[in-house]
Amino acid sequence: MRPPRMDRGQYAVPILASGTSTKLGEKPRFANRSDLVAEAYRLAAEAHEGQRRKDDGTPYITHPIAVAELLHDAGFDDEVIAAALLHDVVEDTEMGPGEIAERFGERVAELVEALSEDEGIEDYEERKREHREQVEESGRDAIAIYIADKLSNLRDMRRIYAEEGEAIASRYKAPLDVRVRLWREDLEMAKRSAPDLPYLSEFERQLEEFERERAARRADGG
User: Fold this and answer.
1) Phi and psi (nearest 5°) for 53?
2) Are the C-beta atoms of residues 108 and 87 closer than 8 Å to each other?
3) Please, which pLDDT band fits residue 92 given cuts at 50, 70 and 90?
4) What CATH fold (topology level) applies to the domain 8-219?
5) Maximum distance among all alpha carbons in the chain?
6) Beta-carbon neighbour count of residue 75 at 10 Å?
7) Which of 1, 29, 61, 97 has the fewest Cβ atoms surrounding its Cβ within 10 A?
8) Is pLDDT of 48 > 70?
9) Would you kindly state where each structural domain of the chain is located, as residue ranges?
């Protein structure tokens, strides 16, 4: 079930969000690289319409765009870009893998399914670790989307953390220490199974810098 529609005026929306260079209201620069990608972008925008990011309230579509941009810039093919754009559709809407397969092909559907968590697992850390294992078993392309997703989320968190510090923890389902620990485990998995990902070193750098920022903040009491 989609979350209820929210008024644009409820949040102050910045021009750039979620690590993407695409301005809100504009098609991403990669959207017309093929009919497949253009259709995936159209469907993602429609599926996430009215949804907002829980961290800063920006339109949710900025996130899959940011993930897809990382993969586009890294030279991945159209089916991987399409899957990146659609990677949260199964989790966040009523659309299932079967409909995605019918519209975009089996490979895109399999990647999206690999990127979809098992919501039946209630424990947060257990669900995230089961999901990581599922992604690793699905191969390099799934790992590529997964790590691009984590990098985008980490960039967002660092941006907000710079302004608000540890107080941002209340916006998330899990404590920041847990999220950092899980990101560390994600990094270890990717180093083991897809060490050649072009932006893996950037994910590691961002994570190390975030850990140093948190240590400095906490040492100062904030």
Assistant:
1) -70, 135
2) no
3) confident
4) Hypothetical protein af1432 (1.10.3210)
5) 55
6) 8
7) 1
8) yes
9) 8-219
Residue written as tokens 């140093």?
212
* Residues 29-46 pLDDT 10s: 898 899 999 999 999 988
Q: Residue 139, Cβ neighbours under 10 Å: how many?
A: 14
**Long-range contacts, 184-191 (Cβ 8 Å, 24+):** 185/129, 185/132, 186/132, 186/146, 186/147, 186/150, 189/132, 189/135, 189/136, 189/143, 190/143, 190/146, 190/147
Q: What pLDDT digit, counting tens, does each position of 117-168 carry?
A: 998 999 999 999 999 999 999 999 999 999 999 999 999 999 999 999 999 9
Distance CA 187, CA 35 (A): 33
Task: Please tell me the predicted confidence (pLDDT) of residue 127.
Answer: 97
Q: Active-site positions?
A: 91-92
Integer Cα distance of 162 and 73 in angstroms: 27
- In sequence order, the 6+-apart residues with CB closer than 8 A to the CB of 160 are 55, 56, 168, 171
